[in-house]
Amino acid sequence: MQTLFFIAFGELVVCWALWVLVFVRRHRQPTGQKPVVTARTGRWGILLQGISYGLVWSLSTPPSGPWAATLIGISMLLSPVSVLLAFFAVRHLGKQWRIQAGLNEDHELVQTGPYRWVRHPIYTSMLTLFLATGALLTWWPVFLVALALFLAGTEIRVRVEDGLLASRFGEAFSAYKSRVRAYIPFVR
Q1: Are 36 and 103 contacting, i.e. CB atoms less than 8 angstroms apart?
Q2: Running DSSP on this structure, what letter comes out for residue 67?
Q3: Which CATH number fits domain 2-26+40-179: 1.10.8.1000, 1.20.120.1630, 3.30.365.10, 1.25.40.10?
Q4: Rounded to whole angstroms, how far apart are CA atoms 154 and 148?
Q5: d(CA 123, CA 171)
Q6: Tens digits of residue pLDDT in 142-182
Q7: Start-end of H helices in the chain
Q8: Domain regions of the chain by residue span
Q9: CA distances from 132 to 8, 17, 100, 142, 172 (A)
């Protein structure tokens, strides 16, 4: 079991590096666009998400007992899924991607690629990577606290971004929102 854990841990570290690289690579590309509208309140969500990631990494205990193989398998499945989802989400969002919620002058309502299934696939990728890390490294009471913080932070960011999109796209966004879930497929 120890060998399987080290393989899974290696995969997790590689997937984290690739996941970050998706955003670093995109951030370095000049967009030539200035944000017209930004929402600073989304920073609280970023803070909560960051704290939750810190908890799942810093208070780590490798899985043991009867669920160890299952937890390792969950981690090994979710890690690469999160990287792929982030890659395709950023690719479809294109020049509109930014860390802080905001709209460009020529902002478009993206509904292609992973945006067909969830309105915020980057948050879905963040959640899957969080779950992969937590399954592999985190003692369950700490994981539950971190998960609550992560979900609270994500909800803040989703509401801020949805508000911006609703203000810009009106009825088109309302129709999209009624059809497509926020960041967890099949969950309102």
Answers
A1: yes
A2: T
A3: 1.20.120.1630
A4: 10
A5: 23
A6: 999 999 999 999 999 999 999 999 999 999 999 999 999 99
A7: 2-28, 42-58, 68-93, 121-137, 140-179
A8: 2-26+40-179
A9: 10, 14, 25, 14, 34
